Amino acid sequence: MTSFKFYPATLPLIFVVLFTIIHLKADFRFGAQLIKIAFAGVAVIILINYIYKIYTHQLI
Amino acid sequence: MSEEQETPQENKPIDLSKDQNPEPAPFQPLGNGPVTPPPFQQPPPFGQFGGGGFGQQNLPNATASLVLGILAIPACCFYGIFGLIFGVIAWILGAGDMKKYEMNPGIYTESSYKNAKAGKICGMIATILSILFVVLIILIIVGAVANPQMFDNMIKGWH
Q1: In chain B, which residues have pLDDT < 70?
Q2: Which is nearest to B72 in space by CA: B125, B150, B112, B115?
Q3: Which positions in chain A touch B129 (Cβ < 8 Å)?
């Protein structure tokens, strides 16, 4: 929870990295599609976090 | 001399008998002829429909572009420069592999094509985010140079 408050994209990013490693080893059928969607989700979280922190002056 | 001539004649039937051994071979092509040659000649057309699998290879840079595209996001934390580099490399590698697959769809596996596509998209997203990050850092530096006192107050406000 501390990491989520500090940087909300941490846990999804760790999930994406782990899933990518598993996908490269096991080669799931919809692995690439899922990685794309999860990556886009992480990017959206990062952007929202950015805008939120800029508005609330919590740059760090 | 006649014996010498006969001996090669005797050898000839032996050779014929050797040739006769594969006589069943003409029967095999009759029965399996239409079936056996096509698998060796037609893997590319089958590969186009996503079937097959043997004889196909992975795209050379698909895995690299996917890994680099995903690593580009954590690399954004290093002032965005490493994220920009990784993202652009992943984008270029993924786009190059997609072109290779479109030139010869039968040679490469479809899963590696999907990986290359995912790597390209991840690289694009990471590049855009990294550019935003670099622009933000440049703005902060410019603001700090222009108004040092305000920047000092902002840093004091953080801690």
Answers
A1: 1-54, 155-159
A2: B125
A3: 43, 46-47
Model confidence, pTM: 0.65
Domain assignment present for A60: no
Q: What pLDDT, in 10s, does the model give residues B88-115?
A: 999 999 999 899 888 888 888 888 888 8
CA–CA distance, A46 with B119 (Å, rounded to integer)? 19
Say how many C-beta atoms besides its own lie within 10 A of residue B97's C-beta: 26
Q: How far is CA B21 from the centre of its chain?
A: 46
Q: Which domain holds residue A35?
A: 2-55
Using the Cβ of B112 and the Cβ atoms of chain A, whether some distance falls under 8 Å is answered with no
φ, ψ (nearest 5 deg) of residue B108: -105, 155
Reported as a single tens digit per residue, the pLDDT across B113-132 is 888 889 899 999 999 989 98
Residue numbers in A near B123 (CB within 8 A): none
Q: Domain tally for chain A?
A: 1
ipTM of the complex: 0.78
